[in-house]
CalU3 (Streptomyces calvus), 420 residues
Amino acid sequence: MSRSASDPVPAGPPARFAVVANPENRRAALFADAVRAAGLPAPRIVPWERVLRSGGAEFAPDEIVRLDSPGENTDVDRLVRDMPDPTRVEGSARWYRRFVRAVRGLRGGVRLDDPGELAVLFDKRLCHAALAAADVPVPWSPTSGPDAVPVSGWDDVRAAMREHRMPRLFVKLAHGSSASGVLAVESSGRGRIRATTSVELAADGSLFNSLKVRRYEREQDIAAVVDALAPDGLHLERWLPKASQAGRAADLRVVVVAGRATHAVVRTSASPLTNLHLGGRRGDLDAVRDAVEAAGGRWTDVLAVCERAAACFPRTLCVGVDLLPAVGWRRFAVGEVNAFGDLLPRLTGLPGSGAEGLDTYAAQVTAALRHARPGTASAPSTGQWCLGRHADEEHHAQHPPCAEHHRHHQHRTGTTHVSA
């Protein structure tokens, strides 16, 4: 029988939550509000700064442990990147190593996030390869999978563009987030080239994150940016021409909780970068549904693509999937899967998702109480929440977890066709 967020929570002793977070951050406050709204005590907040300085943290066996983003805190950023200015782009490889080490140092409790899966989610090359191996549609990439090529600088990017006939591509930091270090590169047959990015190149060669999206049209400037990013690791993807809404490029952020697509928002932009903090705007989700159906597709199939992507990470309760609609709204590909992609304030659940009337945090609290609550039949014996054991069995029989799914499919990239 299918269960929804409105179903009764199993009886038992009151659940206790703990959150590894930056205490002052609104993410921690929003999740704490959701926990209290469920009639539970406020969660214990374990600061990231303490975890990083001490090399880990201990949790009681009955604590349900959530990890939240370590971002937007200058002291924490300095601990993980060793950069004097938090707006600097460089240092993401160091951030990745220290973040993964800190996560592996957390001990006890019932975890809603898995250290191994987080290590994949925060490496775009590994994440892309996992999705492609499971037959989840993704843009083609020369930097992931068994035939991945290293990229040590702009010369390698140029070579990949020629060899693989990629006049338009995205260059991404392997361990970046929030569009940091992302360049949308396009070239013409006449030798002209330009890159759209939020990276600001200083006179001394340093790179800074900016809220202003800019274009570089001199190849020497583009090369300088890419060469400075390369030591932290680069991921390349073919540029998928996206569908538009009201004349603006459009994509979707879909939040998947316990294997179900529960929340979705359309992001539109006049530039290739749709991130809301870079000038992107929320679009019309109803219009997207209408466009999909007018093209002969089904909205449920669109959401199923996101659920298949999330199923690649069965021991992580919640992920945010960036879904790229191709021109015409008939084909879709997964751009990225985000471990901390649930910050969508005041957005309530999709009709039929089981999270109607709930924001992303309330949906996660409800799912955690049902699937990971200590002392109930559905609680894991290993201290780790797992989709394959605790999520809606009826629903996921139709969309098997990634690890099982990829055994029966060949590695492929591209887009998936949704049809009636």
Q: What stands out?
A: The first strand starts at residue 16 and ends at 21. The CA atoms of residues 56 and 105 lie 4 Å apart. The mean pLDDT is 90. The chain is about 30% helix and 25% strand.
